[in-house]
Amino acid sequence: MAEIIDGKAIARQLDEKTKAEVDAMVAAGLPRPGLAVVLVGNDPASEVYVRRKMKGCEKVGINSFEHRLPAETSQDALLTLIARLNADPEVHGILCQVPLPAHIDTRTILAAITPEKDVDGFHPVNVGRLSTGTGGIVPCTPLGVMMLLDSVIDDFVGLDAVVIGKSNIVGKPVALMLLDRECTVTVTHIYTENLPEIARKADIIVAAAGAPELVKGDWVKPGAVLIDVGITRIMGENGKEKLVGDIAFDEVQHAKAVTPVPGGVGPMTIACLLHNTVQAAKALAENGEGNGLDPYHDAPDRSLIYGTSEGSA
Ligand code: GUN
What we know:
- By secondary structure, the protein is α/β, with parallel strands linked by helices.
- Among the domains are: 26-115, Rossmann fold (3-Layer(aba) Sandwich); 140-266, Rossmann fold (3-Layer(aba) Sandwich).
- Helices cover 38% and strands 15% of the residues.
- It is built from 10 helices and 11 strands.
- The protein has helices spanning 7-27, 44-60, 75-87, 106-112, 124-131, 140-150, 171-180, 195-200, 266-287, 302-306; strands spanning 3-4, 34-40, 63-69, 93-96, 160-164, 184-188, 204-207, 225-228, 232-235, 241-244, 257-258.
- The strands form 3 sheets. The protein has a 6-stranded parallel sheet with strand order 1-11-8-7-5-6.
- Helix 7 (171-180) links the parallel strand 5 and strand 6 (184-188).
- Helix 6 (140-150) crosses helix 7 and helix 6 packs across helix 9.
- The two termini are 25 Å apart.
- The relative contact order is 0.17.
- Residues 49, 95-98, 120, 140 line the site of guanine.
């Protein structure tokens, strides 16, 4: 029987650690970490995510600042708000919820957030830092994936990892993080041939394709560790809607461990956002505004990025 990796429990542990870090910062006279969340328009899914993020802040003692702007907000007005948040000493993390309305250029907006406050890890400077192994803020879902893997794998060196999906938000950063842990990494995508054959060699599979139940039981080597990032609503046989991942969960009992959907990767994303906000606040307190990490030389303590070697922290 495969072990089921309990993302909810691991996220709860991370939240407890984050809350303790916030309390310790405040007790030491440092500013309470603050997260600004910007939502443009009223996309219903984004509304739900933003509400969850604000609630998460409250739970761990992070100040939250919600900025809701109408869908017709101009790109210049949004850039002005971001410049204000970049300069605000009470704000240590800035998150601009995507998707943005079509008349706004997402890349321009994400690049306008100062890298030291970019708690999504989407800024090109943070992407560059990750790809060169020089620290920086890493994206939340990939960070959560690594923490889940850390909860069941002691030694990554030389393991074969297959990442299914090459998105900027999940596939590419996860691949870089696995490479940084000395795995042999294969990234696959929709034009990859022989995907089942490639997957069958893997010690680790991270499925982030957004394709319901793509990974079948006979694609999985006995003893592999499986992380399912996909989440799709489908119609079940009983006519009721259900959520499924990219892995055919019922067929992979011969794996060493697998994340469920829901309750696996999902709960980790917000916990990692809160974790990133506290790390950003600490780095800003130490290094000062606009004087953050030297992208080439100052790789921070790895435990700030991945948690401690106890894994699930
Ligand atoms: N929209 C959906 N997920 C995310 C996320 O993690 N960050 C941002 N900024 N927008 C999102």
